[in-house]
Amino acid sequence: MGEFPAGGQPTSQSALPGRRSLLLAAAGLAVAGLAACASESDTRTPARPAPVPSQVISSPAVEPAGHHQATPETRLSPPSKSQILAEFSARKPVEWGLGVTGVVTKTASPHAVLTFDACGGPHGADCDQRLLKTLRKLNVPATLFVNGRWIKANPGLAAELAADPLFELGNHGFRHQPLSVSARSAYGIPGTVNAGEVYDEIMGNQDAMTQLTGEPPRFFRPGTAYYDDVAAAITRALGLIPVNFTVNGDGGATFPAATVAAEVAKIGVGQGAGQIVISHFNQPAGGTAEGYARVLPGLLDRGVTFTRLGDALPL
Ligand SMILES: [Zn+2]
Fold this sequence. Notes:
By secondary structure, the protein is α/β, with parallel strands linked by helices.
């Protein structure tokens, strides 16, 4: 939880009380069993063509020259915490937000990318069974950003999602904190306070996910999706690509279904090329699943194609 009450841009703190009320109300209704969420993989049909991996490497606009690249070498042996501290402790951030320098917000792929976060925590450890069922039925791939707390609450489900070729798992942080080297916060959620905590927030979950899936995730999105530019650079130094979005599909799982459908429908312009949509798959009492069930068939009929981040941003 903690992402974007409305719209694709940061919202004011004043939006928080209403959003929290919605989330608390949703949490009271979120009684669906977690185990059932893991049993839907047989329902997909081959009615839709399989996603076609993009042959286009990310554009200069989204991967500026000079940024640290996630080479196989760095992915196999990321810098140690002491190396990160030595390189970054003295650096002062100059940007704070969703699209700071170094963060990928769109791709050069002709396809659209759907991303769904699972944030964990007291009101965020559930699973939206209906949403995953819709994706599987329509054969629409997605990248799922999972937090360490969510994995701890759902180890079997996390392993099943990791094994499903329709999905790709990304790192959504260890404690679900805004990624700051100077104790910034977002939506009232305290961020990490220095480069060492940034390292811990990324690598705590990275290590757990690597054990879970057998390979390190390539993509990172922090809790609340807020970074500063130094934290984004640390993410890249650790071999991960910091990612955000072009379309806010569900407003932190607060949008009603009609709003979700209307927001996600925006990727139909340009047939989805390069778009990255953010939504959530941990709030089954929200409008996210119904919104996607309404909007995806029409987008597919219009020729919009979907792929996972790893295919839209190849190594
Ligand atoms: Zn989250």
